[in-house]
């Protein structure tokens, strides 16, 4: 059984079936693209790349076969909104993918579903089957001559790094999930060498909402650089954990109030790859230009040991690193050693500085986002909680 | 392994390539199907797959070793994966882990002598608001407590053959 | 990203190690011929679109350190030592794999870049177990040089206290010590992409990752062909050849032993590099003196055996052709269709015949057998084609068999006391001499195989500065061989030598009349696969040496000999797959296969590093040496003719030759139990 975690009334509940796709198909693809551009929608997976720009590049990239890939490899610690979307609003996701296919001219769609969510597969297959029966997938969709598109579901197999789009494509191609050199980007050289757009589950859902309710509606919410609404997965020390819909640009303090997390000493925004915001900075906004997030919010109450938090995140990265590039593969274990030294109270300030400097190198020189983000939590915890972590009496 | 068993395995793999294709992109679906039906990917099957897809066996084993849901060693009928990521860690995963070790009589990474259970860790299962979470084959359990562990294990023990929640339509 | 950077061609099977698509795209972009300006450290240069930052910097003479990058291999971009700052980009970029598609500004040594490189080195060193003093790559290690270059003076992040992996000593040819591995994956890309053998791959992930064989089995139990190309590309001492110098020294120091060494052509063209000379300086006759200085009792020229190989293998080829022809004639007589086309005379059918008759299979094309890497490759991957492989032993083994029989007889030394050493550019030769069947003389034909690198070490150990040694000749009774033997060292060389001899034997005309300076240009070059058709316009009398086997050559008159050359097992695989599919190579009569890119001169026992330029320089040295010889055709080697007259009296492919100079192969297959 999938627990109902949806909190309040989400925009997704109010979208009429097929309203986004229907609206898109009324006019040429460029029109739908224009509306998405006007909405200012940015990737909801966390990186925040403008969706319309990605699609536009894929349109320009010539190729007979183009692919629409839905990144459902939600693995970021503290993130579970995609699971909820897939359970409760799968139609929106497939509809969004179909719009994407219409815009870029793709015939093939793939949902890369993480292995941990295998229990969602039969539900998704059922939805796909129904959509095919409704002529919302397959040949001449909606009666539009020549608009063919179908979606297949492919499973991940327990590798967080496959959430990185090029690693995801490698995995689909039957390879180790090791991120590629970029450039070339997937929009040029994606799945099987073809132009490919890879978007997050939530992004596709919002595309439908934007086409159904209008770019203006979306654009009027949030901040200038981070428009619209966003789903948040809230967990940790708060009274009402779950999935929430908030406008972009919400402050950490406002968010905590909504979820019953007042009195927290810190909040991890953006999962293990994100940053740790201390109480003193709770007025910061959650937006691409300030504290970016893919939707994960983990609340730490006053009693939590932040060193343990850093250790847990680093162990996660050490296990999930693809092991390809030196900074990430070798750097993360060094940071873990550092945390252990801090726990035992035998880390000099000089060595701690050395480790922080190493963390900066990892951020700068790692091959992919995973390696670049791996030291984030460690660095922000060292920055904000020095009193707590230094000079411990060893266990 | 008996020769006949090897032959049967080869036949199965040929059928899988008929279904998923012989491009390298068929590799993951084949490996996943093999995991589902035989609980592990043997060295012999890796070599057959390599042959069928025209790749090197070492490439297959490399892929198998990369993904934590693909295993080259025989594992139990029920694979228990306890989430150890931060939110579950904060909600008492440690106690559940201890109880699992006690009730199963094996450490993490081990398989019970009767071949029923394999115990392992998972990274974030996406149930952070309902931790501690635990995946048994494809079934998810949330808000697991040490005392619930026993009943979950009993539920598994009383299930004949493949887990009830495994999607039968894909067989 | 420019629109021009498109995928092209059909997506091929790309191995996991392969980020080849980047390389493909780069090639494609370059092919478009567009130019773009890039500024590196304030200096502007115009380069073809898609050129990498590294390549552009090299053109400007700006050095960017590299480790996982190798000229021969597809791009990986994993070590990150070559990172640079690209203006406007948040993260540093790996210059080796960053194609320039916009007019970017690059800085190669900003504080962030230097810090990152230093950190990356520190991390590698923290994970690298082993002392430089005891490492066979001491002084020729890329990690060591980088540590020096970046002033590493302490282990900032600690170091390995004890080894994590057992050293794999199972193979006669190679030793793997993963404790020294820095995970650059050059060996993986060599084995899977360059050679397509597929022994090594990355196993597991995160910091548990390691390079391993299938099932982590010892090298001796997997499909390793011992080519040693991975050794030549390993930046550290993680991969090395199985060193036999101790055993050789022991034999030399034992007064009861008569230690003889034969030297192959390629080591002579390469060994100068071990003594600081630029590539392509032939050291043949200086090395002879140095070898005697080391204490070898006799120094022989492997090329003598190469000439012998040509006679034996050439005769074998002619015998196969003759047999195929006989089948053809037989078929013609039984073929009713021939009666319906009386205009197709029998002689015409011979002329048009491809010699290959599928009804009466005589294994054609014949494959060369000189390269032990190729032989093992065929045994693993094409066991059904082993009867195509010439039964001739390789020159090394032929020589060994003669040394312990003919030479022992002639000199009166008990073969038991003869220690035969072979200096080879090759790691697979170490495996070959340990094949159980290689003891036709009743003794192990070749006791030890030495690589070029090992000999350089021995020469240094006795305090000899090779480039300043006086020259001296090879020892009798084998003397100095012919130019044909010399060119065995370069891809196409065996074919060229065979053509020189076969054409003269068959046509009775000087091969110089057919090819300028007897240089068979169509089979030369570094193209991976080469194909040539050589018409036999007229035939001469059968020379005495093989007159017992052939009455006349009339059956060859007007025929066209089709030959091919492939070097590197990836190319060999292409050819074999074509043969399997009945393509044009299945119509060939003779195909030369060499396991190593460039042929023996690029062998796994040659000096490190290797690159296309280095291999080209060595090839030039070899061709120059060929040209400097007065006798350039195997069948004109006087010492060789003497051996046939005195010892191999029943002639080429005769009974004695079969016993001593020919061998058989073992179908190994690729499945591992």
Query: Structural class per helix/strand content of chain C?
Result: alpha/beta
Q: How would a textbook summarize the main sheet of chain C?
A: 5 strands, mixed
Strand and helix order of chain A? HHHEHHEHEHEHHEEHEEEHHHHHH
Number of strands of chain A: 9
Number of helices of chain A: 16
CATH class of the largest domain in chain A: Alpha Beta
Question: Could you tell me the number of beta strands of chain C?
Answer: 17
Largest interface by Cβ-Cβ < 8 Å: A-B, 57 and 42 residues
Secondary-structure arrangement, i.e. CATH architecture of the domain at 309-335 and 344-394 and 482-661 in chain C = 3-Layer(aba) Sandwich
Measured distance between first and last alpha carbons of chain A = 41 Å
* Radius of gyration of chain C, CA atoms, in whole angstroms: 27 Å
Number of domains of chain A: 3
Q: Mean pLDDT across all residues of chain A, rounded?
A: 93
The CATH class assignment of the domain at 309-335 and 344-394 and 482-661 in chain C is: Alpha Beta
The H-level CATH homologous superfamily of the domain at 309-335 and 344-394 and 482-661 in chain C, spelled out, is: Fe-only Hydrogenase (Larger Subunit), Chain L, domain 3
Task: Write up this protein.
- The complex is a heterotrimer of chains A (395), B (171) and C (673).
- Chain A contains 16 helices and 9 strands.
- Chain A is of the alpha/beta class.
- Chain A folds into 3 domains: 11-219, Rossmann fold, CATH 3.40.50; 229-300, Ubiquitin-like (UB roll) (Roll), CATH 3.10.20; 307-389, Up-down Bundle (de novo design (two linked rop proteins)).
- In chain A, the strands form 2 sheets. A 5-stranded mixed β-sheet of chain A has the order 6-5-9-7-8. A 4-stranded parallel β-sheet of chain A has the order 3-2-1-4, sandwiched between helices.
- The longest helix of chain A has 18 residues, at 326-343.
- Chain A starts with 18 loop residues before the first helix and ends in a 6-residue tail after the last helix.
- The model of chain A is unreliable at 1-7 (pLDDT under 50).
- Chain B folds into 2 domains: 3-66, Arc Repressor Mutant, subunit A (Orthogonal Bundle); 78-157, Glutaredoxin (3-Layer(aba) Sandwich).
- The radius of gyration of chain B is 18 Å and the shape is elongated.
- Residues 163-171 of chain B have low confidence and may be disordered.
- Among the domains of chain C are: 20-109, Ubiquitin-like (UB roll) (Roll); 121-241, Alpha-Beta Plaits (2-Layer Sandwich); 309-335 and 344-394 and 482-661, Fe-only Hydrogenase (Larger Subunit), Chain L, domain 3, CATH 3.40.950.
- The longest helix of chain C is centred in the middle third of the chain and has 33 residues, at 302-334.
- Classes of the chains: A alpha/beta (395), B alpha+beta (171), C alpha/beta (673).
């Amino acid at each position: 059984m999938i627990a109902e975690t949806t909190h309040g009334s989400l925009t997704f509940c109010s979208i009429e079936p097929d309203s986004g796709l229907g609206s898109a198909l009324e006019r040429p693809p460029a029109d739908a693209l224009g509306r998405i551009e006007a909405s200012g929608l940015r990737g909801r997976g966390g990186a925040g790349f403008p969706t319309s720009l990605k699609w536009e590049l894929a349109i320009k990239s010539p190729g007979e076969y183009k692919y629409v890939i839905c990144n459902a490899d939600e693995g970021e610690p503290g993130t579970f909104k995609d699971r909820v979307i897939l359970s409760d609003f799968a139609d929106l996701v497939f509809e969004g993918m179909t719009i994407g296919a219409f815009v870029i001219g793709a015939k093939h769609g793939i949902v890369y579903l993480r292995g941990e969510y295998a229990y969602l597969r039969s539900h998704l297959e059922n939805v796909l089957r129904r959509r095919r029966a409704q002529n919302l997938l397959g040949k001449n969709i909606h009666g539009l001559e020549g608009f063919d598109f179908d979606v297949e579901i492919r499973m991940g197999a327990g590798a967080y790094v496959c959430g990185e789009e090029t690693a995801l494509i490698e995995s689909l191609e039957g390879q180790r999930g090791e991120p590629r050199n970029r450039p070339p980007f997937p929009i040029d050289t994606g799945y099987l060498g073809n132009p490919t757009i890879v978007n997050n589950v939530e992004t596709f859902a919002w595309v439908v909402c934007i086409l159904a309710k209008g770019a203006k509606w979306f654009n009027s919410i949030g901040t200038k650089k981070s428009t619209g609404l966003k789903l948040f997965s809230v967990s940790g020390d708060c009274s009402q954990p779950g999935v929430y819909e908030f406008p972009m640009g919400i402050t950490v303090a406002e968010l905590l109030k909504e979820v019953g997390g007042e009195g927290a000493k810190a909040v991890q925004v953006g999962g293990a790859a994100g940053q740790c915001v201390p109480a003193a900075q709770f007025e910061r906004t959650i937006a691409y230009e300030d504290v970016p997030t893919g939707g994960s919010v983990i609340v730490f109450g006053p009693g939590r040991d932040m060193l343990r938090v850093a250790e847990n995140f680093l162990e996660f990265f050490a296990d999930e690193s693809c092991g390809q590039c030196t900074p990430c593969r070798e750097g993360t274990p060094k940071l873990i050693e550092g945390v252990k030294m801090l726990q035992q109270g035998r880390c000099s300030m000089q060595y701690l500085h050395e480790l922080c400097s190493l963390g900066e190198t990892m951020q700068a020189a790692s091959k992919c986002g995973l390696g670049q983000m791996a030291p984030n939590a460690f660095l922000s915890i060292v920055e904000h909680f020095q009193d707590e972590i230094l000079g411990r009496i060893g266990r | 392994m008996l020769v006949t068993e090897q032959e049967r395995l080869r036949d199965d793999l040929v059928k899988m390539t008929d279904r998923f294709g012989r491009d390298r992109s068929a590799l993951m679906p084949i490996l996943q199907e093999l995991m589902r039906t035989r609980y592990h990917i043997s060295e012999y099957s890796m070599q057959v797959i390599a042959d069928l897809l025209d790749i090197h066996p070492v490439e297959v084993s490399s892929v198998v070793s990369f993904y934590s849901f693909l295993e080259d060693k025989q594992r139990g009928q029920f694979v228990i994966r306890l989430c150890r990521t931060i939110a579950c860690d904060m909600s008492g995963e440690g106690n559940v882990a201890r109880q699992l070790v006690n009730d199963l009589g094996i450490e993490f990474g081990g398989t019970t002598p009767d071949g029923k259970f394999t115990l392992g860790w998972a990274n974030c299962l996406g149930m952070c608001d309902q931790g501690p979470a635990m995946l048994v084959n494809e079934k998810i359990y949330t808000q697991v407590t040490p005392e619930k562990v026993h009943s979950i294990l009993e539920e598994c023990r009383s299930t004949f053959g493949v887990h009830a929640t495994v999607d039968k339509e894909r067989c | 990203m420019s629109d021009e950077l498109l995928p092209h061609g059909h997506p091929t099977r790309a191995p996991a190690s392969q980020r080849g698509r980047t390389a493909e795209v780069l090639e494609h972009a370059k092919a478009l011929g567009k130019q773009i300006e890039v500024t590196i450290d304030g200096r502007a240069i115009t380069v073809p679109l898609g050129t990498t930052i590294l390549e552009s910097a090299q053109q400007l003479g700006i050095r960017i350190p590299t480790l996982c990058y190798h000229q021969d291999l597809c791009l990986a971009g994993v070590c990150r030592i070559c990172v640079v700052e690209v203006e406007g980009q948040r993260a540093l970029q790996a210059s080796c794999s960053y194609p320039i598609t916009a007019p970017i500004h690059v800085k190669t040594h900003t504080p962030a870049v230097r810090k990152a490189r230093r950190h990356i080195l520190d991390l590698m060193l923290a994970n690298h177990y082993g002392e430089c003093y005891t490492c066979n790559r001491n002084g020729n290690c890329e990690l060591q040089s980088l540590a020096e270059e970046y002033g590493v003076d302490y282990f900032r992040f600690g170091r390995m206290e004890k080894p994590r992996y057992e050293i794999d000593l199972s193979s006669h040819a190679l030793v793997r010590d993963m404790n020294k591995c820095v995970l650059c994956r050059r060996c993986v890309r060599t084995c899977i992409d360059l050679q397509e053998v597929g022994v090594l791959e990355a196993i597991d992930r995160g910091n548990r990752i390691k390079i391993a064989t299938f099932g982590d089995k010892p090298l001796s139990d997997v499909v390793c062909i011992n080519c040693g190309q991975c050794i030549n590309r390993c930046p550290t001492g993680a991969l090395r050849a199985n060193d036999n110098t101790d055993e050789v020294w022991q034999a030399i120091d034992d007064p009861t032993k008569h230690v003889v060494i034969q030297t192959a052509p390629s080591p002579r063209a390469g060994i100068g590099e071990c003594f600081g000379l630029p590539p392509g300086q032939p050291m043949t006759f200086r090395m002879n003196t140095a070898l005697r200085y080391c204490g070898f009792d006799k120094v022989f020229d492997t090329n003598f055996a190469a000439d012998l190989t040509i006679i034996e293998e050439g005769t074998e080829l002619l015998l196969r052709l003759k047999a195929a022809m006989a089948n053809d004639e037989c078929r013609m007589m039984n073929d009713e269709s021939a009666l319906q086309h009386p205009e197709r005379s029998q002689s015409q059918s011979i002329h048009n015949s491809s010699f290959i008759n599928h009804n009466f299979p005589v294994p054609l094309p014949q494959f060369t057998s000189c390269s032990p890497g190729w032989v093992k490759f065929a045994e693993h991957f094409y066991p059904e084609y082993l009867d195509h492989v010439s039964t001739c032993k390789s020159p090394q083994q032929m020589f060994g068999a003669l040394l312990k029989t003919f030479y022992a007889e002639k000199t009166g030394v008990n073969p038991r006391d003869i220690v035969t050493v072979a200096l080879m550019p090759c790691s697979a030769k170490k495996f070959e001499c340990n094949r159980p069947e290689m003891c036709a003389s009743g003794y192990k034909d070749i006791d030890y195989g030495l690589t070029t690198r090992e000999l350089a070490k021995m020469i240094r150990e006795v305090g000899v500065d090779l480039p300043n040694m006086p020259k001296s000749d090879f020892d009798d009774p084998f003397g100095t061989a012919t130019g044909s033997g010399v060119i065995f060292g370069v891809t196409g060389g065996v074919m060229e030598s065979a053509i020189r001899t076969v054409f003269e034997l068959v046509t009775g005309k000087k091969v110089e009349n057919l090819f300028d300076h007897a240089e068979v240009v169509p089979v030369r070059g570094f193209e991976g696969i080469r194909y040539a058709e050589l018409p036999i316009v007229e035939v001469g009398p059968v020379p005495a040496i093989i007159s017992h086997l052939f009455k006349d050559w009339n059956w060859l008159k007007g025929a066209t000999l089709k030959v091919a050359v492939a070097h590197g097992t990836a190319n060999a695989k292409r050819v074999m797959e074509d043969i399997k599919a009945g393509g044009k190579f299945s119509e060939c009569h003779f195909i030369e296969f060499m396991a190593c890119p460039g042929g023996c001169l690029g062998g796994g026992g040659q000096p490190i590093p290797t690159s296309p330029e280095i291999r080209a320089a060595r090839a030039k040295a070899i061709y120059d040496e060929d040209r400097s010889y007065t006798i350039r055709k195997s069948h004109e080697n006087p010492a060789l003719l003497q051996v046939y007259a005195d010892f191999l009296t029943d002639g080429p492919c005769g009974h004695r030759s079969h016993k001593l100079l020919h061998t058989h192969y073992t179908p190994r297959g690729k499945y591992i139990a």
